[in-house]
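WARN no homologs supplied; continuing
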Amino acid sequence: MEKKQVKEAKGKLGVLVVGVGGAVASTFVAGTLIVRKGLGIPVGSITQLATIRLGKREENRFPKIKDVVPLADLKDIVFGGWDIFEDDVYAAARHAEVLTVEDLDKVKDELSAIKPMKAVFDQNFVKRLHGTWVKSAPTKWDLVRQVREDIRQFKEKNHCERLICIWCGSTEVFTPLGEVHKTLPALEKAMQENSAEIAPSMIYAYACLAEKVPYINGAPNLTVDMPAIWDFSAQQQVPILGKDFKTGQTMLKTVLSPMIKTRMLGLSGWFSTNILGNRDGEVLDDPGSFKTKEESKLSVIHNILQPDLYPELYGDVYHKVRINYYPPRKDNKEGWDNIDIFGWLGYPMQLKVDFLCRDSILAAPLCLDLVLFTDLAQRAGMSGIQTWLSFYFKSPMHDFEHIAEHDLFIQYVKLKNTLRAIIGEETIDFLD
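OK structure emitted
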């Protein structure tokens, strides 16, 4: 297979994080700095630990991905970003209480030096938080200009060759796709006119694409999942991807649902509840923000099980998702699932899953992988929606002509086959 022309990963890679002081972001930043000092293991990171089979199985070639795919080196990453609170990343990480003080102190100087830029914030989109380190401007279009200037200054100050932006901020209230989101002129006009349909995340996304910076949407927000931004990313030749990091409960759904379906077992109902106590839990305590998250979580089972093709098995599934803010748990989330299935002749059975996970510990390696793979895509000339990275998202982006793939294992095959294609190796269909 012909190898893609991939630009060399030379120079500094600037990673701009929206919500850089949040639990997920501060864990991602601190963890990456610890790993590159050789003081921790990047557990959960495919780019750092996973191998990839090349050629026929009998060739026994299973190199690490990072040894054969031209990824950026961790030592070349420079972190920055925006937050609605002024704390530097060390202070923010201490407040989040995900990593121990002992671990954070290993990179205290580096974390303390990362001070957030003022954020774009609108109380109407995140009801439960009250930002104190925020930008002000007459219009949302003026805010776009301010973010673009932030990006340019960060790139120049840190001598970066390339930039990536990743949203690790809060879930915004549910915003349906409207007319203002369907064309680029309509989107720009809406920003100039201060439309209520323009969320802060859209301002960041537009500003990044205007500066030719790839944008990763880690929340279920609309943000880049709209025709206007699809067109803009194609015009600017910049990758976009999202949405909503697939970490705990939904990751399990994308594993268990294919198991149920491949064995042709039936499903009557799936009840999911979550308790979590970090900033994410507080934000999701608001019904508007929960609605956005609920839409993301509910789409998974329906997509995988294809009830239109299997009405007798999945035509009448009752699927309920609940998220409860419970401060004592802090970042340690518990996801509990009750799954009512049925087998031969319709006889009922049950699956029960209790996943006591650490939300930010699961999300941090995803952030690292997404940053490195998105930078690779940009250097390989891949623009628009990066469907090959659907593996990392609860609600993978797709245009109106395609259907999203939710099955974790199919997504993983697609990811690795794309990497094989990029480096000029044969893709694998497992028929050998």
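Residues 132 and 311 are 52 Å apart (CA to CA).
OK
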